[in-house]
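User: quick one, fold this
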Amino acid sequence: MTRREPLDDPQEPIERIAERVAEGDAASRRQFLRRMGAAGLVAGAGSLLAGCGGIEGTGATTPQGGAGAVPVADHPQEDFDRLVVSNWPLYIDERTPKTWEKRFDARLRYIEDINDNESFYAKVRGDLEQGNSIGRDIVILTDWMAARWIRAGYLEPIDTFNVPNRANLVPSLRHPAWDPHRMYTMPWQSGMTGIGYNPKLTGGRLQDANDLFDPKFKGRVTFLSEWRDSAALVMLADGVDITKATIDDVMAAIEKMGEAAASGQIRRFTGNDYAKDLASGNVWACIAWSGDIVQLQADNPDLEFLIPESGALIWSDNMMIPKGGNAYAAETWMNFYYEPAIAAELAAYVNYFVPVMGAKEEAEKIDPGLAANQLIFPDEETQKRLFPLGDFTPEEERQATVRMQEITGAG
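Assistant:
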């Protein structure tokens, strides 16, 4: 697997090459790096590229750990015969992985061993801290855990030359605070945390998370045990800008939930297991994930998913390359799943918010109903009501986690 490199004219001024890079010419980036490398200035090349404005389509990245020279990803397109991916259960269809294997003449080892972010991290943390390979080329983890890996320096930056389809990333997901230029991560699938409910049982349409504190619903509501999801919905209903939320805002929301739990207002705190109670009618309303509601609606069309006017939480599970992984092999996977037709096939199975532009048009060819679903392909107006949760320090995360465990009984 080879690619043509641009012919390097030794007489061409380095400034002109840099200008072409700034204009988005990824091939010129190779030329630029070779010239700078010959002069022993590769670290300076990364800084210069970053100084051009965090150029889309270059290998220049923001530093991990907040210190040191800006790293430059330059992964040769070398032959490979194997790719190892860790993902969550039931998060991929059957056909597209086989298509990838056939296209790249390589074997895929696909491991469904991520059941939650913390337990997976605990399993591989020792090797990560020692700088050892964890035996994975791609891991797929949620935003806040991805931020932790970036801060710790556990990830290989993405050579964006090898992933031209990253241009298909939907605009609303391009610049998270913890990876502002998406140099270490690409969303696998995204989702929304909102309110799942049955209007026949609640007596009509709900407005926002404050409705879940209404005494008439006592014992008939559940919240998610993940504080980021539940606190985000509570903060939004109380007028907090969650993209700039402080730890004090989070703790206030957790305390509000704690009081409701103590009074019996909240039936319980859950993971995905809220789905059974909602479908059966034991629970009338709950903090819920969009993909679950899409699937439940197939059997119970009375159920609705509310994205309040005050907003809902948007999050992603992100593809990342751990240090020691085969970066180029991983980048072929990333690029493959950002082809709109492939993204549409995946969406037809997993039913989450598709982060790939052009996938909706491809989905219409598969199932017009799929393409019309606002939970899978939200329109621009819907996306304006979706907000990511801001970043927190490790100590702030621990503070919120400990208090949430106390009120949920998990501590």
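User: anything notable?
Assistant: The chain has three domains: 14-66, 82-187+317-373, 191-314+390-408.
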